[in-house]
Amino acid sequence: MLWKLALLCSLSFGTDEAPPKGHLVIIGGGPTIEEIRLKALTLAGGPKARVVVVPQASTDPEAGKKLAERWREDGATDIVVLDLSDPKAARAAIGSADLIWMRGGSQNRLMDALIKGGVADAIRARYRAGATVAGTSAGAAVMSAVMIAGYSGPRNTPRGRIPRIEHGLGLWPEVVVDQHFSQRQRIERLTKVVCDHAELIGVGIDESTAVVVDGGREFEVIGRSNVIIIDSRKAVHAKAKPDEKETPKPKSGPMSDDDEAPPEPVTVKLKAGMRYSLDKGALPLIETQTARATPAR
């Protein structure tokens, strides 16, 4: 499809580009607890923030109305339900948003709607300018550029367990997100995707749990459960070391201290309250305290 080609081109972020000024709140599905909702609203500026709810992942015609009512209960006073029937008005709504909230459903349906409605670029621009973008379940899956869109082939065959990849919004292009993680036993799925995309870090998020991303490189875990990090960058680099032109001779006997097996992907379990850096790994307590003391931009 032409729109997919255009989207892929638009996700080529320059290395010299300034970090985004906004925040991402990425939720692993399930019930979105009050702590997560209020964190997103606070980052966006509090009760007076303009909240744009994006219900297009759902087939429920009342989804937008229900989302708006929930935000009123949480204290928000300026709420807009995104209507894609008027692309110009939809882009204007996104352009004035302080908090963009994407609900669950189908990530494929959501991406199709955002692209065809002409607001995908507007969401990316608003995030870079300072808005908070939050999403749960399908709304979480679309955050990465490499988006897990389910499985390819029939479910009850070996091929049915191969993850299917599509293009997401690319708000967090350094990672690939998976949701409902431990509840639906998706560690094998995310590991396969990460090993096929060695430049990316896998972030598997449990239900009622969120990662709060600041500047794209660091995040904090909040909520009820855990987040699993899968990083295969060192493993892939180690496999690529030997000269491809030379065929190593097989060795017999036990492995010596000099014979190092290629490292497996690194897996890190993060609990609520912990912070993680894509560059440094899990942050020690002193850095965590410093990061929390730093005011949000």
Brief overview, please?
By secondary structure, the protein is of the alpha/beta class.
List the helices and strands and how they pair.
Blueprint: H1 2-10, E1 23-27, H2 34-44, E2 50-54, H3 63-73, E3 78-81, H4 87-95, E4 99-102, H5 107-116, H6 120-129, E5 132-136, H7 138-141, E6 146-152, E7 162-167, E8 175-178, H8 187-196, E9 201-205, E10 209-214, E11 218-223, E12 226-231, H9 233-239, E13 266-271, E14 275-277, E15 281-282, H10 285-293
Structure description:
This protein has ten helices and 15 strands. The protein is α/β, with parallel strands linked by helices and 297 residues long. It has one domain: Class I glutamine amidotransferase (GATase) domain (Rossmann fold), CATH 3.40.50.880. Strands 3-2-4-5-1-10-11-14-15 form a nine-stranded mixed beta sheet, sandwiched between helices. Strands 8-9-12-13 form a four-stranded mixed beta sheet. Strands 6-7 form a two-stranded antiparallel ribbon.
- Kindly report the average pLDDT value: 85
Q: Rounded to an integer, what's the Rg over CA atoms?
A: 20 Å
Tell me the count of domains: 1
End-to-end Cα distance: 38 Å
Task: Describe the structure using short key phrases.
disordered N terminus, 10 helices, 297 residues, Rossmann fold, alpha/beta
